[in-house]
Design goal:
Elements: H1 4-10, H2 21-32, H3 61-73, H4 85-105, H5 109-121, H6 126-135, H7 140-151, H8 164-168
Length: 173
């Protein structure tokens, strides 16, 4: 629940953003006002195949919102704790790799290569290098998918698909 005077001071969702409007809003809110962490779920997202979340947007909205917030308020987290440039670089490297990983498995090789290269430039690990190189090889996704299928038990032979798990559970470096 947000008081109306606070909502007016923070501003509403930025409708110029095609993705991440909620992240941007909550970042702005937390930088100006005290926030609390609730360790239970209070919001449900309805997910279906026509959701904006499930459609390809062609840019890394998560990284864009974080960069935008850092430009606006500096390197301060939602609880007013400062963080270092190297922590920011590591976080952005991870976000760029995750987006590149999902794009690789969804057949967007150029976007995957660009995001993995950004991850490498920010200090990302060997996974970022490997996916960046694999993205440059035509047909690599199909070859690697075949290798993954042969390595999995028969019950788990479905092709990788975008999901919240794909963004969170990235193979260890």
């Amino acid at each position: 629940v947000i008081r109306q005077d606070i909502l007016r001071a923070v501003g509403k969702f930025d409708e110029t953003l095609s993705r991440g409007e909620d992240f941007d809003f909550y970042f702005r809110l937390s930088f100006r006002h005290a926030t609390a962490v609730l360790h239970s779920r209070h919001v449900l997202y309805r997910r279906h195949e026509n959701n904006t979340t499930n459609s390809y947007c062609g840019y890394n909205a998560h990284a864009d919102v974080i960069k935008r917030s850092v430009r606006a308020v500096g390197r301060i987290d939602a609880f007013a704790n400062p963080f270092s440039r190297s922590e920011l670089r590591r976080g952005l490297a991870r976000i760029h790799f995750q987006y590149g990983y999902v794009n690789f498995w969804n057949g967007h090789s150029l976007e995957a290569m660009k995001e993995c290269a950004l991850s490498v430039a920010l200090g990302g690990g060997l996974n970022a290098v490997a996916y960046c190189m694999a993205s440059a090889v035509p047909g690599a996704r199909h070859i690697l998918d075949g290798v993954k299928r042969r390595a999995r038990p028969a019950a788990q032979t479905e092709a990788p698909r975008p999901s919240d798990e794909a963004l969170i559970e990235v193979p260890a470096e």
